Structures are given as C-alpha cells and as structure tokens.
Fold this protein.
Amino acid sequence: MKIIILVPDGVGVRNYIFSSFVVRLIEQKHEIYIYHKLSKSAIKEIKNCRPEIKKFIEIPDFIENPKARVIRESLAYARLLKNKKKLSNNTILNFWTVSKKGIKKKILYFISEFLGLFLSKSYSLMNKLDEIYEKEILKSCNKYLIKMTLKEISPDYIINLHQRSPLVSPIITLAKKINIKTSTVIFSWDNVPKGRLISRYDFYFVWSKLMKNELIKLYPEIKSSQIKITGTPQFEFYYDKKLCEEKKVFFSKYGLNENKKTICFSGNDLTSPYEANYLKDICEAINEIKEENRPQIIFRRCPVDKSDRFDKILKEYKKFVFSIDPDWRTEKKQEDTFTSIYPTVNDNYLLINTVKHSDFVINLGSTMAHDFAVFDKPCLYLNYNPINNSIFKVEDIFEFQHFRSMKNMHAVGWINTKEDIKNQIIYTLTNPNKVGVDRKKWLNKIVLHPLDKSSERLIESIINSI
C-alpha cells in the first residue's frame, strides 16, 4: 500500500516521524512518501535518524487568495463563538489571538469578525462556507503540480500530521476529488475547541474517548465511525531504554549534583508573558532553603522561546539553576515559530532524561504534567498573577476547556500565591505521593493506554480504514 504522510511543519516530526510509527509501516512493506514543507537541515536530521525513509517530496508553495483567507478566518471566529456557547466556556474566545498590525490585517480581521458573528447563527451556513473555501483554495494553489504528484504516486491513503495547517488544504481537497482516502491526527490535547480544523477528512485519529466526544459535539457533521481513538505516539519515547541514561552520567554533563533533589521548571512560549517572573519567584523561594537541603532546578524553556528574558535570573541563581535547552533548530534567520523550527533526535534524549531524573515539575498549565505522570511524578501548577493589574490573567488559563478534564480530581498540586512556593516545594519533595494523587487517573483520561502502543493502534486503524 502507498501512503503519503503530510508534514506541513516541524511540530509533527518528533511525535510521528521520530517515533516508531513510520518505521513500523515500512517494516510492514508499505511504501511511504513524506510530502513536506521542511527545511533542508530538518530533512537531513530525519534521514540520519530514520534512514529507512527514502522518499521525500516538497509541498508546493501556497498562499491563499484574499477571499479564501477571509473565509477561513471568518469560519474560525464563527466556530469559536459557537464552541463558546456549546461548551458554556467564555475562555474559548481567548483562542482568537490575531495580529492586527498594519491596515490590511486590521481590515481582514474586522471583516472576519463581522462575518463570523453572522455565520455563528447558522451551522448549515458554516458548512456551506467550508465548501466554498475548498473551491477558493484551488484557485490559489499549483493544482497542476499537486495533481501530477498524486497521479505519479497514486497513493492509497493520505494522513496529515497537523490538522490546522492551511498549506495542506489544496492537497486534501484534490485527493478527495480523485477518491483517495484522507485522514488527520488531532495534534494536541487542547486543539479541538480552537476552531482550526480546516479541511474535512474521511478519518480522524484522536487521543482519547474524551477527545472523540468533544469532536462529535463541536463538529456534528463528523460521524462517530470516522473517529478512531489511537492515543498519541509522543509518550512512546519514555519507554525506549536506549534513550535513558544513568542519572550520574546525565547530571555530570550539565553540572548537576546527583545527590540533590531536583525540580524541573518548564516554560511556555512568548504568549505567556510572565514566565521569567515565575522563575524568579521560584528561585527566591528556593534560595531561602538551607543550602544542605536546597534543591536544584533544571530549567527547560519552550522550544520556540529563544528570547533573553531569563538570562538575568539564570546568571543570578547559577549556583542551583541549570538550563538544559531543548534541541530544536532552524536554518532561517527569522523569529522562531513552530512553522520554521524543527526538533532534533537529541531533544528526545534531553527531555526523557530531564523528566526521568527530576523529582517533580513546576509550570503554568503545561502538558509536561502528563510527561511527569508517565513516571508517576507530581506536577505543581502556578496559579497566581505575578504582576498586578495585568491584562494576562492566570484565572483564564485554568478555565480553558482542556483543564475541565481534571474536574473532581486531585491531578496536580497548586501554588496559589508567591508566598506558597517555598512550603509547597518542601512538601512536594518530602511527600511526592500525596501531591496530585490522581495524576495517573488524569493521564488515563487524556490519552489511551498503553502509552507505548499508540503507533501500533494508529497503523491498525489506517489499515482497517482502507
């Protein structure tokens, strides 16, 4: 069987290309084509890691015409309004994060919000506009080149690794016209309510029953039989013993003391503006602990955060804060985003050993809580505003839809004030089994288990859907 795997950007590389997913398909004698928009250095990294993958084809450049862009943004805004009402959750509109710099963008989003408000009153009208969008994107793309590619490969199946990328929309639309089966993974645990499921597919692969129910509720045109619960390969790496290194060896590489308790502070991207403030508050609290009992910190920033906002703090507290940066790279001299940046294989090693050898993690609502739960280790969520009178409100964060999944659970510990930090850290270090006691229960709800069988389930679902 011939399978095209659409890789529109770097975010799907780690979870799907570096996992066992593609290799297992090749071992089963399926012919795999990576149809991508990745840099040359990213392709080189993939080839070094997965030499079994031989066939790479670059996705043609695609820029939506103005009409298509307005339709897509209007539909996104309409869906957020609709989802807000369906889920009774006002924070859904926080995902309408758009740039209004420049007169053209101001006009674009003014029109999109006006049309989106009108569209949100009629779901059938939204579906009609989805069809119009598909016709419009075909006017903007190189249909000939895409058709030639699909004709030459003659694939039996196409799977997209990122459901919100407009880049793959023409490919999916043309594939459906010539009766090629199409599918997409829902990339992350918080993606469904965000209103950015651009194309419609024959099949959808989701993390859990929770995500399946959410997809059915928010997209009633999608049938239950089209949605397959497979889990996600991103947690498989924690079961790869070849990636795990002895604590003594790993710590010695980065100057850490293997005999000290270790806390991981994992940062969010630049949309979370006060990460440096949180890190400073934590360092100040730890500095108050007697040196013989003082834990050390492994600081892991968000892969796309290449800012200097942490530099002063890292320098001031270098005695017990050790930065182990994610090994994500870009070959372009531009602002790093998840569309231009890609992970290296080495980052799997860094992440797995950071989690394995830290005692617990502190962050602002990060999915790293689940990574630590794999090893049955607690997480402390930061739940206070470090700056008074800020537009950014931590109260909004934990009202997001995906956090409703831990209702009636003690899934994490909470740091509710700056003054709580020291006592919460000491308590968690001495009583790890009493903090976030439902962390495994929450993880089971978020993603299908066993975690190390996700690639197998995904492949089985693909084969059975043809």
In short: Residues 66-87 form the longest helix (22 residues).
